[in-house]
Design goal:
Layout lengths: L1 H12 L11 H6 L9 E4 L8 E3 L4 E9 L8 H4 L5 E5 L3 H9 L4 E5 L2 H10 L4 E5 H10 L4 E2 L5 E10 L3 H16 L2 H8 L3
Parallel strand pairs: 4-5, 4-6
Antiparallel strand pairs: 1-8, 2-8, 3-6, 3-7, 3-8
Length: 194
């Protein structure tokens, strides 16, 4: 698996690893220049690129909308309309994209996917923005809901290092390209059915 590849690379480099979990990618990005992490895995977004050097994406994840039962909306484009309220987890890569691109609808941000889904249902929002894998789960929990086809963006999931670490970034970039070319990323996607 990928952990085996990472472990062998770390042994070759002669370094140990300490996993530093973050509640969301926004918090991870906030700590880019605070010496709290050396390599992060998150969506490559222009705002984040001010502080982080990103490798090419190793996977692309579609972002779309879940609609409540009985919704009159039928397409991605129709969601960006006056009077439409979109629930979205704050600080996600797709929230950053929506903030830059939504012109007419109202974005309401919540902390985390679980809270956002809860509020979407309880407060009767018009749309829930999210990554397709999570929205598939939410769709199964909400009878009659509608998962829109297509996407409003696709998150470019990448590895990154805080800016100013040229040697580390060069190594990380090569590593990501190697695991893509070797088929390891494709195998992991297939194995996890995502």
């Amino acid at each position: 698996g990928s952990s085996d590849v990472c472990s062998s690379d770390l042994r070759r480099l002669g370094v140990g690893v300490e996993l530093v979990p973050y509640a969301n990618p926004g918090l991870l990005a906030d700590d880019a220049n605070k010496g709290k992490w050396d390599i992060g895995f998150l969506g490559a977004e222009p705002q984040r690129a001010n502080e982080i050097d990103f490798t090419p994406a190793y996977v692309e994840i579609e972002a779309t909308y879940l609609l409540p039962a009985g919704s009159k909306l039928t397409s991605i484009a129709e969601v960006d309309a006056k009077g439409v309220r979109i629930a979205v987890p704050e600080r996600s890569a797709y929230e950053l994209w929506l903030t830059r691109n939504i012109r007419n609808a109202e974005l309401i941000r919540f902390k985390g996917g679980d809270e956002t889904f809860k509020r979407f249902v309880e407060d009767k929002f018009d749309a829930l923005a999210g990554l397709r894998p999570r929205l598939i789960e939410d769709h199964a929990k909400l009878p009659g809901s509608i998962l829109l086809n297509g996407n409003f963006t696709a998150v470019q999931q990448a590895a990154g290092t805080p800016k100013g670490r040229a040697a580390a970034f060069a190594y990380l970039r090569e590593f990501i390209e190697d695991i893509k070319a070797s088929g390891l990323v494709a195998q992991a996607i297939a194995r996890n059915n995502v």
